């Protein structure tokens, strides 16, 4: 029984992704988790199957799928008990190159990404002193002949040890010299293969097995030809890709939510205490049922946001709302699942505690729930700007 009423939509994608994920069962993820490792074999399998090239146009060797179809891929990965967070950025980061890169950049990088010869898994935007105040970015890139010299610090940069390329946002014009604070920032495509002096990477231990790092630049050279689009317009390019990111993350949360609720309902039906299944008690039933209702509502918003994106409509409000509702629904489902399992929910062998930690991330990143609420308050409800 599939408790997702939309499981009949895009059945070919769902069945193919589920079949691939069956090869990476609970034992595989527990082994990776215990070692604090990276799921290299899983990511390689997704790459070879073409799933991570879903949004690259066919002209560049990709599948040319819609964002809605891409969201189904990530939903099914998380629904299987796997973690898309190990590789999901490969899907949407390349959108900056696709939409704003030169023809030469697109032809040089996109086919290689589609073939799996290159990985573009990281983007360096956040800084320790600015957080989400991106216009205050302190990392600078100074033109020096046919190159830029980058100096500064970035934090929470994921998958740097498992990528070849990275997008980097840096200030190329001092903030005091631009008319708007959103100007003067530029995006670069950094080739990390054989990177020389001037780049220091320090891993950050964190509560999930999510490879992330603090990065220091000290006059680190980047070829001028690696500038994406027009100098000074980089923030616009980065923001342009965030709607896709939020919709895809929402889909991952939906997948997590269905995984948690499936796990909870099956355990509640089979676990017997006082000579009766615990799922017979309304105190156990009702939280599961409410979490299910909220998950269905969030899923509808995900479909609406993805449909708007694929139509080319302005979808900022829908994308943000989908991410907010889906993250909340997955976190509610996680708590219900853990509570239903009681003490066994904390045992690694049940996978609940691992997925519990993974889905908690999406209350904070990418973009926290409070920032989404601030966006909706200001841009949709026309309330005064709060910051």
In words, what does this structure look like?
The structure is a single chain. The chain has 387 residues and is of the alpha+beta class. 47% of the residues lie in helices and 15% in strands. The protein is built from 13 helices and ten strands. The chain has helices at residues 11-21, 26-35, 40-48, 67-79, 89-92, 94-100, 103-115, 234-240, 242-270, 282-311, 316-341, 352-360, 369-380, and strands at residues 120-124, 140-144, 147-158, 165-171, 185-191, 199-203, 212-223, 227-228, 272-273, 276-277. The strands form three sheets. The protein has a four-stranded mixed β-sheet. A four-stranded antiparallel β-sheet has the order 2-3-7-6, with no helix packed on it. Strands 9-10 form a two-stranded antiparallel ribbon. Helix 9 (242-270) runs parallel beside helix 11 and helix 10 (282-311) runs antiparallel to helix 11. The model has no long low-confidence stretch (mean pLDDT 96).
Secondary structure elements and pairings:
Blueprint: H1 11-21, H2 26-35, H3 40-48, H4 67-79, H5 89-92, H6 94-100, H7 103-115, E1 120-124, E2 140-144, E3 147-158, E4 165-171, E5 185-191, E6 199-203, E7 212-223, E8 227-228, H8 234-240, H9 242-270, E9 272-273, E10 276-277, H10 282-311, H11 316-341, H12 352-360, H13 369-380
Parallel strand pairs: 1-4
Antiparallel strand pairs: 2-3, 3-7, 4-5, 5-8, 6-7, 9-10
As a percent range, the share of helical residues equals 40-55%
Query: Strand content of the residues, in percent?
Result: 15-25%
Shape: globular
Termini separation comes to 47 Å
Radius of gyration: 21 Å
- What is the number of helices? 13
What topology, given as strand order, has the largest sheet? 1-4-5-8
Uncertain runs are none
The number of distinct β-strands equals 10
What count of domains describes the coordinates? 3
* Overall average residue pLDDT: 96
The level-1 CATH class of the largest domain: Mainly Alpha
- In CATH, the homologous superfamily of the largest domain goes by the name Butyryl-CoA Dehydrogenase, subunit A, domain 3
Q: In terms of structural class, how would the helical and strand content be classed?
A: alpha+beta
CATH topology of the largest domain: Butyryl-CoA Dehydrogenase, subunit A, domain 3
The major sheet is characterized as: 4 strands, mixed
Order of helices and strands: HHHHHHHEEEEEEEEHHEEHHHH
* CATH architecture descriptor of the largest domain: Up-down Bundle
